[in-house]
Automatic annotation (TrEMBL):
CDD domains: RNAP_I_II_AC40. Its main location: nucleus. Keywords: DNA-directed RNA polymerase, Nucleus, Transcription. This is DNA-directed RNA polymerases I and III subunit RPAC1. Coiled coil: none annotated. GO terms for molecular function: DNA binding; DNA-directed RNA polymerase activity; protein dimerization activity. One of its GO terms (biological process) is DNA-templated transcription. Pfam families: RNA_pol_A_bac. Residues 58-258 form the DNA-directed RNA polymerase RpoA/D/Rpb3-type domain.
Amino acid sequence: MAGVIEDIRTRLTLKEYAVDNTHSTNFPGSHVGYDDALNLKNFKKNFKVDIIRLCDEFLEFDMVGIDAAIVNAFRRILISEVPTMAIEKVFVNNNTSIIQDEVLAHRLGLIPIYADPRLFEYVSEGDMNGTPSDTIVFELKIRCSKNPNADTTDPDDLYINHKVYSRHLKWIPIGNQADLFKEGDIRPVDDDILIAKLRPGQKLDLRMHCIKGIGKDHIKFSPVATASYRLLPEITLLKPVYGEQAHRLQTCFSPGVI
């Protein structure tokens, strides 16, 4: 009986037609003889984080000794509560491309900005102009022209500046920002995000204001493209498996699981 209760407390069981033990048990009286009440001292003792993979654009880690409900809370916090900087206002001085101003502004707002949000304040309510402490200014000035030396019909050779990328955004320091940040500290995260396509004579002249925000206000402020979690698998073979069946079973799982 004790073993059954232990499995209910610590294991989520995937069966052929159902998933068992999906409910949380970290509250008093959940099981007779067990005190599963959330205790901060025990939580600090048992909880640990192991970094599995870390790079500029990806982070994978294991959270050990924690209930799945709390893990999901961390996931939701990553998506909606961690602040970042994003383009909030776009001042259009000239736009002769085929993209409407509001569509262009929306696309610019979704470009991830490389800037440390801890160094900026939230914009005060009613502040329309922004200050060096809460606003980052970008400028985009580009004009498409025909390449007089082109001898093909390939647009990449035929036209100059016909593709507008995120790398064309130029950071304009305001106030004392030039003293606080060096070149490269503030920029788009990726420089190859396509913003628009132009043809000879068409041009863009824009000025953009970036502010600090969180994903709960708008998804453009979310620091992650996605955040997900999965439970650590524990596979129990009920009988020996040999030969071709063993190989087929192994291919059903990620490398190293079996």
